[in-house]
Amino acid sequence: MPGRIAAVSIVEAIAADLRSRVFSGELGSGEALTETDVASTYEVARPTAKASIEKLVAEGLLDRGTHKTARVVDLGPESVRDIYLARAYLESEVLRRLASGRTVPAGAVQANKDIAAVKSGAPLDVVEPDMRFHTSLIDAVGNTRISKMYRSLVGEVRLCMSRVQSLHLLDTALIQAEHQRLLELIEEGRGDEAAGLLDVHLGRARERLVAAMGGEAGPEAHSPSDLVAE
């Protein structure tokens, strides 16, 4: 019996394509995205174009003031820090709670195997399983509000991850190794150590991206790892 095919609206399809173009860097920081341009590019009516743009505005990928043209968000150093620190607050507590029950999410295990399988190809290939790894940890707590809070950050988090990968700021082997260690610490019930490793894991990416965006990197950018040689 054939599998079900999910129906995707025109608005969702256009938003997905625009989202992909933002993540890949085809649509760069600060680039304008007008309803007229979108309508023309995708050959749709302006209300459809407007609805597609509004979806990305709601996700934090586009910024638009009242009666102004939408633009791809400009990720400055402070914005990068805000995004990473917001997710760190949520993820650290989640790791402690998972460790208290020694709950290792199967989705996170599989996502990390998928990261390990990325031997070549585009650096952006790592972003999807990396995002899935962290989201699986969040969802494993089973709290719908926490999952909802995290998903409100997903667009901006994925944008940061895409920038990190496209700029070759982190080695894939290091990402995978630290993920694996996080899972081991959860299984061993060592929540505080898992939270500490998460701070190192996110802090290194955060501060390297800050530097790439023209800011002054903090010491976390050079955090060493004994899990893999960079």
Short recap of the structure:
63% of the residues lie in helices and 3% in strands. The protein is mostly helical and 230 residues long. Strand 2 (62-63) and strand 3 form a beta hairpin.
For the termini, the CA-CA separation is 48 Å
Summarize the biggest pleated sheet.
3 strands, antiparallel
Shape: globular
Q: Which secondary-structure class do the elements indicate?
A: mainly alpha
Beta content: under 5%
* Estimated helix fraction: 55-70%
The succession of helices and strands, N to C, reads: HEHHEEHHHHHH
Q: What is the arithmetic mean of pLDDT?
A: 90
Give the spatial strand order of the biggest sheet.
1-3-2
* Rg (C-alpha, Å): 19 Å
Model regions low in confidence, pLDDT < 50 over at least 5 residues: none
Question: So how many helices?
Answer: 9
Total strand segments: 3
Organism: Pseudarthrobacter quantipunctorum
Keywords: DNA-binding, Transcription, Transcription regulation
InterPro entries: GntR_C, TF_FadR/GntR_C, Tscrpt_reg_HTH_GntR, WH-like_DNA-bd_sf, WH_DNA-bd_sf
Pfam family, one: GntR
How does the SSE layout of this entry go?
Elements: H1 10-24, E1 32-33, H2 35-42, H3 46-58, E2 62-63, E3 70-72, H4 77-100, H5 106-116, H6 127-140, H7 144-166, H8 172-187, H9 191-212
Antiparallel strand pairs: 1-3, 2-3
Helix pairs in contact: 1-3, 2-3, 4-6, 4-7, 4-8, 4-9, 5-6, 5-8, 6-7, 7-9, 8-9
Pfam family, one: FCD
Keywords: DNA-binding, Transcription, Transcription regulation
Organism: Pseudarthrobacter quantipunctorum
Can you walk through the features of this model?
- Residues 8-75 form the HTH gntR-type domain.
- It comes from Pseudarthrobacter quantipunctorum.
- Keywords: DNA-binding, Transcription, Transcription regulation.
- With 230 residues, this protein is mainly alpha-helical.
- It has helices at residues 10-24, 35-42, 46-58, 77-100, 106-116, 127-140, 144-166, 172-187, 191-212, and strands spanning 32-33, 62-63, 70-72.
- Strands 1-3-2 form a 3-stranded antiparallel beta sheet.
- The mean pLDDT is 90.
